Amino acid sequence: MIEKTVAELYSALNSGEISSVELTQAYLDRINRYNETLNAFITVSDESALSKAKQADALRAKGDSSPLLGIPLAHKDIFCTEGVKTTCGSKILHNFISPYDATVVTRFNDAGAVMLGKTNMDEFAMGSSNETSYFGPVRNPWDTERVPGGSSGGSAAAVAADLCAMATGTDTGGSIRQPAAFCGVTGFKPSYGRISRWGMIAFASSLDQAGPICKSAEDAALMLNAMAGLDTKDSTSADVDVEDYTAGLDNSLEGLRIGLPRQHFAEGLSADVEQAVRDALRVYEKLGAELVDIDLPNNHLSVSAYYVVAPAEASANLSRFDGVRYGYRCEDPVDLEDMYKRTRSEGFGEEVKRRIMVGTYALSAGFYDAYYRKAQKIRRLIKNDFDAAFKDVDIIIGPTSPHTAFKLGAKTDPVAMYLEDIYTIAVNLAGLPGMSVPVGLADGLPVGMHMVASDFAEAKLLNVAHQFQKNTDWHRQRATAFTEGQ
Amino acid sequence: MEWEAVIGLEVHVSLSTQSKLFSGTASIFGADPNTEANIFDLAMPGTLPVLNEEALRMAVKFGLSIDAEIGKRSVFDRKNYFYPDLPKGYQVTQLDFPTVGKGSLTINLEDGSERVIGVTRAHIEENAGKSLHEDFHGMSGIDLNRSGEPLLEIVSEPEIRNATEAVAYLKKLHAIVRYLDISDAIMAQGSMRCDVNVSIRPKGETELGTRTELKNINSFRFVEKAINSEIQRQQDLLEDGGKVVQETRRYDAERDTSSPMRSKEFANDYRYFPEPDLLPVEIDDTYIEAVRATLPELPDARKARFVSEYSLSDYDAGVLTASREMAEYFEAVAKASGDAKLAANWVTGDLQALLNKNNWELTQSPIQADRLSVLIKRIIDNTISGKIAKTVFDAMLEDSASVDEIITAKGLKQVTDNGAIESLVDEVIANNPEQVQQFRDGKEQVLGYLVGQAMKLSQGKANPGQVNQMLREKMK
Amino acid sequence: MAFDKSEVEKVAQLARLHMSESDVDEVAARITDILALIDQMQSVDTESVEPLAHPLDMTQRLRPDVATEPNRRDELQQLAPETEDGLFLVPKVIE
Predict the structure, then answer these.
(1) Whole-model pTM?
(2) pLDDT at A317 over 80
(3) What are φ and ψ of residue B203, in 5° steps?
(4) Cys-Cys link to B248, which of A30, A81, B16, B213 (CB 3.0-4.6 A)?
């Protein structure tokens, strides 16, 4: 039962085949059993989960059949959860009990979903391997010597190992899509502004976006139905109508034009990843789609521009962690300066400090034009590339990552780590919806296919992904080490 | 050498909104520490700003009142620095695209002359909290009630030439924001604050000298003193062959001196960049015109109207319109009493003296407009004389009874009864035969003396006009 | 662009990060590498390109001026490292 998709669990709950309490207990048992190995959860809230599951069962007994009622989920520990520890993977928030709920959390609560706990992540979402977490690295269920990707590595690993039915993630440069690819699950990053950022601890405000990490495109649609929509508490939340994202899942792909960026099928892409993606594209051709080579000429600049914009915004966003009102404060500060510096130096990890330094430098007097302003201009060029491409094609497809999951500790050079997101970062700079779906295995490790649509064309993206999953079963592959008891 | 000062003012006024600039937390002066500091104001992780529509409207209202260009697209920026009273580690302000652009206002000087002073810009920003320095076993206390309150920072052109003009400029700004009802602008409470940029140069020189910035000035009087002291300091320095250093100085009102602030504090690099949690604010002509329609009559217009409608002197009209409360008080008295001239005399005379003496705001006066109007009416209808009115006025301070009750209770009612006046007049004529003879011999001036005698006999209560008339008749 | 020791110290001061003598060289080297990556964007002429600060082509929404947030001082100060009499305490602020 625990391996089922949300859509399937919905039927099982409705038919009385299983209760939410039973389902919740089943996941809690698995967390209990496997979390020590995987380290996917920072916090597990068994008691509140079971009581919420009980409520859900009671509601269902009264005839409530909301799609997510009683479905167990995990939240990335970047989302504030009232009364529950919210760490963002950092020592500086290791003791922070949020006094309020993020809008995403409220929406899942209102939908009747059952929160099992909070998942591990790269500290402040800064990382592509989940190795920067203060709470230790997460391990990839497909090979526990390997990373799950990041920053939403805990959520991706938890979904992949069936420790929950669905999870939330956030994506600033690929943080939903890349771990989804590495863990063989479906990860969806909506258009910027589609989901409220209220209560989602900010990394880079103009790039951050929440989204689902789950077992199918259909589940992503169900989750998005709950998550998406205007929130007046977030000025950057878009006032764009929310559709029923499940409604168009079965639309025909006849005549669909798929753009293949030459820059994404070029040097640096490993052959087995390319092969798996090319195989998936043949499925689309059979479904009536047409493949078109396209250019994203400024794509190679996206990592450069991103590593100005994201650290610059982060350097300011992380100034609030100063040891005054909440969170970690160093022992016995001798004066105010000492308190600031030691609190922040002891409270933040190396990668976070590095990015604060880069961002501070990029904004400092004399460098603003050469770095920040230049990066904003590159951002425009990147957006223009996509706009031009979408005049010709409906969807853009390529690999999510140049290769499959790498070994823990394999990438110590920050720049090498930054280049992990070479295919995904441009999408955040342009604010577009993108997703990763599993399309095969290479050496026993999952390969993710990256799909991008134009602004607010979430429904189209989900439709295209769902049609692939209807005709293949890569999304149902599981790491054998964690399939016991299914 | 003759020197000329060049002065620019940066004035912060707190906008009197119900809630903060970017959060729905109450924004009322004087609450217990940190009771007006909710999750956004404490910069809890994940919280986000949403702009208060009233703060924007107030800024536009101010802009229109000084004929300024209104920014149809304004952009908020982050100004980054660490300070315990700045929870987010950055202040949200407007750097390149403020809501209010270039405008100007007319200042009124003591000698009756006027000058136009340019306003460079006015931008919306967040206030910081407060650090309390009384000793908490070697630590400071932080109160964030003020944190996130909306401020309007109004920046003048460096067109002010001396301390008197600076004060006149401040007073005019004060009057305007109070007329607009967008700020209490109470300097002592910090809802109006002023930083002053001062430089001096030889008269006739067009290049600007090196300027210093004075901070921490919290009254009109101190602004004047601080500027004069800084001009003198710079002049002494330059005349001794020294150089002015560009720096921020803190003015100490008690000792009337200023000293440089720690250089570390402003060797800061604020790393401004557009605030990504907010989007550009766009307003159109319809919005601007709707705000314009709500503009009240402003000090200059009201002054002109007082001159034409009530035949007041320029001077009186200026005094009466210097504050909105005074103007409204006067106009209420003028209308209710029916005699604007008397109303103006009383308001600028006895009432003003009373306020000055007790250091009261108009609202603290025990004599409000309705009571003063009745008093004036009693002068007009001859119930009391102007002189007795002063006695009644004094009595009204102690006694909250109505004007008429006070007049009756104290027996101050003017004697107008012909019989009573006749007997007074007869007595005066009988007691002063010599003066009566002089009058009859054509010495008109003596009449005043005789009227005075009669008034004295009546303890001031006789109607002086009637006494005058009857004396003339009897001495024919 | 080389990011030397003095830059590290200056930037660390702005960001209020403590930089121990032994870390400075390592940090300088790492950041120099990152700046080399970033500087790739300098190769493109962007003279006539309008900067894009935000992916959303929208304007700011406004909030009605209503006080909606309750006083939660006692509860919120539970989260603070040190408080007294309703105030957050910090090492002495010297002005």
Answers:
(1) 0.92
(2) yes
(3) -55, 135
(4) B213
